[in-house]
């Protein structure tokens, strides 16, 4: 027996709306999962700690530099460079890598002054990271001559803040915006389709 047309339409519209709601919820859930960093899958390597620390003032010159990162390092592509206030490179040993930590020995005794540690590393996922940070040696027992020599050529840029690690930025925001727009368009189309079926 044929059902009345009104009954058929009454059953069809709620079903279409239900499907539309389920699809929109699924799209929004996927959007949230993509936009919210949920662990190491999104996190590129970055500097966790350093010795000497960023902006530290030391009472005695360090004999080594140790940088520890969030992820394991590739020893082949790990570089650490130490420069003084006049941007002169200070001799150091080769980086020794152990997991996520890299250490270099400082060959010379550092006179009082401001120094910059610059690093470029590649984590095991192949992502390169680079940055720099300053520290200061202020040994009260150092001679005035040593302090004067270390201060020559000093400039405000020598004590600049560390450069941020390069990681996901604008590309993530653009991708998230595109997904949000897609969710809005899908919702609009499905809603129009369901309303067209009304008597």
Automatic annotation (TrEMBL):
Q: What Gene Ontology terms describe what this protein does at the molecular function level?
A: copper ion binding
Top-rank taxon, per record: Bacteria
Q: What is its main location?
A: other
| Keywords for this protein | Copper, Membrane, Metal-binding, Signal, Transmembrane, Transmembrane helix
Transmembrane parts of this sequence: 170-191
Give a GO cellular-component term. plasma membrane
Q: Where is this protein localized, as stated in its record?
A: Cell envelope
Tell me where in this chain the CopC domain is found: 44-137
Which InterPro entries does the UniProt entry name for this protein? Answer: CopC/D (IPR032694), CopC_dom (IPR007348), Cu-Rt/internalin_Ig-like (IPR014755), Ig_E-set (IPR014756)
* UniProt record, GO biological process: copper ion transport; response to copper ion
Q: Does the keyword RNA-binding apply?
A: no
Keyword tRNA processing assigned to the entry: answer is no
Q: What is this protein called?
A: CopC domain-containing protein
Instruction: List the source organism.
Output: Micromonospora parathelypteridis
Q: Taxonomically, what lineage is the organism?
A: Bacteria, Bacillati, Actinomycetota, Actinomycetes, Micromonosporales
